[in-house]
Amino acid sequence: MKTILGLDIGGTKILGVLYDLDGKELAREKKKTKANEGLEVVMSQIYKVIDALKSFEDAQILAIGAGVPGIVDDNGTVAFSPNIPFRDFTLGKKLSERYEVPVYVGNDVNVAMYGEYKHLDSRASKHVLGIFIGTGVGGAIIIDGKLYTGQGSAGEFGHMVVSADGAYCGCGAQGCLEAYASKTAIQKYILKQLTKGRKSMFSDLLEEDGAVLKSSSIRKAYDAHDELAKEVVDRLARYMGIAVGSLVNLYHPEMMIIGGGITEALGDLLLEKIISESRQHAMPGLMETVNFTVSELADEAGVFGAYQLAQNML
Amino acid sequence: MKTILGLDIGGTKILGVLYDLDGKELAREKKKTKANEGLEVVMSQIYKVIDALKSFEDAQILAIGAGVPGIVDDNGTVAFSPNIPFRDFTLGKKLSERYEVPVYVGNDVNVAMYGEYKHLDSRASKHVLGIFIGTGVGGAIIIDGKLYTGQGSAGEFGHMVVSADGAYCGCGAQGCLEAYASKTAIQKYILKQLTKGRKSMFSDLLEEDGAVLKSSSIRKAYDAHDELAKEVVDRLARYMGIAVGSLVNLYHPEMMIIGGGITEALGDLLLEKIISESRQHAMPGLMETVNFTVSELADEAGVFGAYQLAQNML
């Protein structure tokens, strides 16, 4: 049977899904990345995932797609990954030689948002932006139906300045969107407010969730009319709205997909607030021409986008 | 002789240039736009320019290109122009029917920056951004060697937010780049400083120049070590640098062209300052991969871009 393999290579786990040529899932396999055990161990974990799926019935793999955190060039070389020991590593070439099939490797957020695009609406819209709120803030640019990466790093929406002289960002710069709208920035803001002595459900929720606040906890506190939760959501919408309004002026796309765990947990409630703030910044008449939607695939977006990008190579 | 006609339709004048198929200028014609006399007068002025050039020797016009201030869609319909009485006006169709040739109509800044791109480096670079400092701040996006306009209005770099809660912009929004880096914003800043009682050459220069300060006057004051001029140039470079750094993160282009009268008057002196500020905002490693250059064609960019875009239709 002719199949295509999608891989989502993350900092903690590797997910592989085998699809038939119509995009139907046939099998899946998950392994730990073991990133701290070095490059060779990581590669052997990737091979194990692929080999397990290859043995599925009479699967003949025609192409492989993969998303990886970090900077990836057009040839599938990973210049740098923040979580995995890839440094100028020719991942695409390695996989292609080993399995003798065409291989697509892209940045994980690019690949996942491309998956959302293909899932949501790839026929009606050709110019689409995806913006993703995770630990950081990332994005993807789709132009004429194709993923645009410029010289490799395009779509870093988290690192557009929204506030000159503003908050410091993990990248070293000042005023980046990511310093306001990432999960990391949100948690930092909540902790600061709690330290100041503000009363909020987040005290208990943070204890329950452990080191990292869950997206669902933000929703829970918001639904319980927690005042700090309302402030956090409004603040997130504010800065996201500034960015989204600017992006509408920059790209005038047909559709914008807002993705990530927090977005999916808050859904239309957050989307409406973001749209409302964007109207303050988009040029007259433009907002009405753009469709806004929340992502739907959650953790499945990566493998599905990888499958789609692999299929494009055939 | 086979020719192509480029038109630059401005708020005060219409410039037409006739080119041969190798881009050599054969003849030019200029008329007042007479925008305040209404649509029919404007159209008759445009026809006069074209007809005058059409009568050049044995010119056979194969295609017409035109740049117009305002919002233009893919079909050459001008949705709105701030200076000319075009409202949902099918300019492209009108010209195409009258002269029986293919006609390209685009936004004036888009068209001019495309002209700069073709003039400067259209072979080496495929992904290029042009950012233009004029009365406002505009831009153009070139992807895969083609002008990208999204749904019509892409490239409005003047209306990306650089400062949340910042200065009010003519568009109604707050914190737009245009509110800091346009000629209008610069003149406003200078007037405010003079009103505060600051001593500067700009007092005399403004009187000499009349209502609008000339770009050459900014250069003159800067070269004379005028303190306010230095401040104005540094402030311009600061906000342009924030925008340019963000744009590098968003598009990761191969080249960025900084254009407009002020840019051409200040040249590399301004460009170096902008690049230096951009480094504070672009992600690590990206600035080194982008070529920065100042525009070169000045007022000729519009007709030349129009010619190039018309030629693409053949």
Could you explain how this protein is built, in words?
2 copies of one chain form a homodimer. The first copy, chain A, has 314 residues and is α/β, with parallel strands linked by helices. Chain A folds into 2 domains: 2-101, ATPase, nucleotide binding domain (Nucleotidyltransferase, domain 5), CATH 3.30.420; 123-295, ATPase, nucleotide binding domain (Nucleotidyltransferase, domain 5). The first copy, chain A, has helices spanning 39-54, 91-99, 108-121, 178-181, 183-195, 202-209, 215-223, 227-251, 261-266, 268-278, 301-311, and strands at 2-9, 13-20, 25-32, 60-68, 71-72, 78-80, 87-89, 103-107, 128-133, 137-143, 146-148, 255-259, 291-294. In chain A, helix 3 (108-121) crosses helix 11 and helix 7 packs across helix 8. The first copy, chain A, starts with a strand and ends with a helix. The mean pLDDT of chain A is 95. At the A-B interface, helix 8 of A face helix 8 of B. Chains A, B: It comes from Fusibacter bizertensis. Chains A, B: Belongs to the ROK (NagC/XylR) family.
